[in-house]
Amino acid sequence: MSARPESDGPPSSARARGLTHVHPADVSLQAALDAVADPVRRAILRELAGEPDWARACGTFDLPVSKATRSHHFTVLRQAGLLEQRDAGPRRVNRLRRPEFDEAFPGLLELVLREPPAAP
Amino acid sequence: MSARPESDGPPSSARARGLTHVHPADVSLQAALDAVADPVRRAILRELAGEPDWARACGTFDLPVSKATRSHHFTVLRQAGLLEQRDAGPRRVNRLRRPEFDEAFPGLLELVLREPPAAP
Predict the structure, then answer these.
(1) Which branch of life, at top level (chains A, B) (predicted)?
(2) Given CB atoms, is A30 within the 8 Å cutoff of chain B?
(3) Cα Rg for chain A, rounded, in angstroms?
């Protein structure tokens, strides 16, 4: 049991209070497959994998979807144990949970990351 | 390029004429994920994995779905390169394409096969 970031002090905002995480070990295969079965979510994962942890804010991804849909995709990925998020001022930054997801679902993330990007 | 069973002679029936196969190497990650993202299809795969090749006919699986839905699930699995089918008289028998699917999508089928069966 590791402390969650929001337990270090008072939550900075209502937005941050809603930021719950699920460890990949607690995720069902169904939820993991549903998370990666969407091409936009796979594009997010591939882009995150090419960057240092906490380097990318949600708003910096160039995605062909509305703001609400983008937010939904990040929530699905977080709840499937695929990414960790923190609020850094106005930005919500991300970390790909690669080692712990690989331990729970060996090979799955690798298939996603080696997939060629879709044609634009 | 390997010959397909139906090219060995005249097709035995209209049913057999429709039996096209896709090699896992020609399947997209999207199609592979869509195929295994359904719990009934994962149950079929787990059951097939416990039996010799060509031992099980489609009709012998105890599935909580209609005959048409069952048939659809087998078609999706065949078109995702997960199984091979043959007509043997009135029975349509199956082979799990485990080695060739594993080569195309390492780890994915293993995740499906080690998943605990759903509670009845």
Answers:
(1) Bacteria
(2) yes
(3) 14
| Domain assignment of residue A44, yes or no | yes
Q: Is A107 on the interface with B (CB under 8 A)?
A: yes
Quote the radius of gyration of chain B (alpha carbons, Å): 14
Facing B30 at nearest CB: one of A34, A39, A107: A39
Distance to chain A for B37, nearest Cα, Å: 6
**Of residues B33, B111, B112, nearest to A37 (C-beta):** B33
State how far the Cα of A109 lies from the Cα of B21, in Å rounded to an integer.
27
Judged by average pLDDT, the poorest of A83-92, A94-103, B7-16, B96-105 is: B7-16
User: Which amino acid does the sequence have at A87?
Assistant: D
Q: Sign of dihedral through CA atoms A62, A63, A65, A67?
A: negative
Task: Tell me the residue range of the domain where A95 lies.
Answer: 31-114
pLDDT tens digits for range B22-78: 999 999 999 999 999 999 999 999 999 999 999 999 999 999 999 999 999 999 999
CB-CB under 8 Å, A107 with B110 = yes
Closest residue by Cα to residue B82 from B51, B64, B103, B61 = B103
CB contact (8 A) between residue B108 and residue A108: yes
